[in-house]
Design goal:
The chain is an alpha/beta fold and 351 residues long. The chain has helices spanning 44-50, 104-107, 146-149, 152-165, 180-191, 204-212, 226-233, 249-257, 281-285, 301-307, 326-335; strands spanning 6-14, 17-24, 32-41, 66-67, 71-79, 91-94, 97-98, 118-119, 121-122, 129-133, 137-139, 173-176, 197-200, 217-219, 239-244, 259-267, 290-293, 319-322, 341-344. Helices cover 25% and strands 27% of the residues.
Length: 351
Amino acid sequence: MMASGTMRAVRLHGKEDLRVDEVSIPTAEGNEVQLRIAFAGICGTDLHLYDGWEMSGAVTLPPMPAIIGHELSAEVEEVGPGVTRWKSGDRVTVQPQVYCGDCTMCQRGSPNMCLNKTKMTKGGAWAEYMVVNERTLHAVPAEVPMNLAAMTEPLGCAMRAVELAELDPGDNVFVAGGGTIGLLLARLARARGANKIILSEPQARRRALAKAMGVTRTIDPANEDLEAIVATETADLGVDVSFEAVGLAVTSMACIGVIRPGGTAVLMGVPRPGTKLEINPWDIVTAERTIKTSWLLVDNMESCLRLMPSLGLEKIATHTIPLTEAVEGIRMCKAGEALKVLFEVGGENPN
């Protein structure tokens, strides 16, 4: 039966103005599916929206007050009359952006750059219920717990970057940033057979976690010479692949600076609009270094769900809190006290 009445939802009313509101439960129509949220995560993009970043064109957000959140796991509550694949009780996660498949960019194999990209949801995941188009859904395998399933979308973004890097077994890798994405990148690099994985992160707790997840060498960039350490670890050659997972100019330049001749740097941290880099083309051209960027994900949610049980991602989800403590969750993330914060809404068995 379709849920109706009201629900608790976390809505962004403006810059640094996040409130727990009582709102109407959205209902599913046509090809839509009503979901009962199990877990929802705080993403770096959510923090940027909270801080008032202007990201129009890159991030689709309804008029404020807006229910935010796009990392989630859920159970199907009820389906619209046009839905045939899904039924009540199905365990699912969501790819929040849906691509048209017909525009020039989709036809060229870059659906993440879709010219007609739409957010096919009614509200975000920081709520007890949400409604999505059935095209966004992916089934969560029984062996994947619902709290980890809520991390499928960020894992997909990291996987996209690793795929673009064309990382080969035996490659040496550098990662700038030990947040959720940085650790996911390191874990995926290890799963693909990387040799040495060097990770730079100023926070000691995150460096310790990185070591526990298979990183070979961690660097405190505030107190250690990053370039000298990378040179020592790679016999003065530089790494084969580097990943930027912070979004700052200084970390982007570091990633470009540590790759070997013929190496590849992939920038995927979200920079504040207007951030600029000063690069020396001579160093890039004469050493045939490659700089790539990675945005969102491309058709890899199913792969992520299959791979997830083997990655040991439980260590990344450091805090699980009630939805009503959303403001505290934001504070913990911004203060560096938490890595991945999950809201437990309905929990492992939400219905």
